[in-house]
Amino acid sequence: MTSKLAFTFSLSPPLDGGDPSGWDQVISDHQSCLDAARSLRILRCPHDWAGSLDGLVRDGQATADGLDPFARSPGSGPTKDRLLCDAVIPHFDAARLWLQVHLLEFNGADLSTDSPAGIRWLDAVPLQQLSNDTCWFYPTEDGHYLASERSCAVRFAAGVLAEPMSMDQPWSYDRGDLRLLWSLMADDDDLSCVGLTYQRRRIEFPRQAEDPAPSVTWSSFRVDGMADPSFQRLSTISTYG
After folding, report:
1. CA distance 159 to 165
2. What does each C-alpha distance from 96 to 9, 85, 126 come to in angstroms?
3. N or C: less crowded end of the chain, CB within 10 Å?
4. pLDDT digits (tens, 9 = 90+) for 80-132
5. How far is 120 from 101, CA to CA, in rounded Å?
6. Domain tally, the chain
7. What pTM did the predictor assign?
8. Which among 67, 186, 79, 149 is positioned nearest to 56, based on CA atoms?
9. At residue 240, what are phi and psi to the nearest 5 degrees?
10. Residues 84 and 139 sit within 8 Å (Cβ to Cβ)
11. Which domain, by its residues, includes 119?
């Protein structure tokens, strides 16, 4: 039998502190607690580009699809060379949510969290009691950048480790290895909760369904290490599909 860790959210711990009464209900509670996110893409502008975000919108290049506005420009090169971030960031309500940790057991090679053969409840802890780490989404290298951001309603599966742990050796779960990630998103006034890790491995919440908002907010910004502040937002425009 093989095993893997799974992570779900709830508004309170299990009543009996033991095994959940049913995995389907655990997932239903999880999906009602974690149902919103924002999609963020950050692109480096071509070095020889001297235009503006206003011009890209006016010319129909920066649109409500949030995709690379330079993709069809002659000589701009492939999008992958400019794309610095393409992330869907769940909305973690750190003040209200509990994180539950489960050990899922499987009889065969299929390790889908939809159909475990057995479930062991390991822990439940309020998010606000976890240790904190910081991370940085926005670039720190000098240059001119564009970012597109869109809110979306999302149905997430249970969280799993992006880099699986080996479960064929003796191991033990330790709450102290959980970290809540916070990032100062560019010029936001407050830190944003952007994820969790366990033993320095990122916890990933696979998307089962996504309903994006009809509008995208584009931002143009510069990073200049010699300036104060180093991050300078130049313009912001919302486009609608």
Report:
1. 14
2. 10, 28, 7
3. N
4. 999 999 999 999 999 999 999 998 888 766 656 667 778 888 999 999 999 99
5. 9
6. 1
7. 0.86
8. 67
9. -125, 140
10. yes
11. 2-240
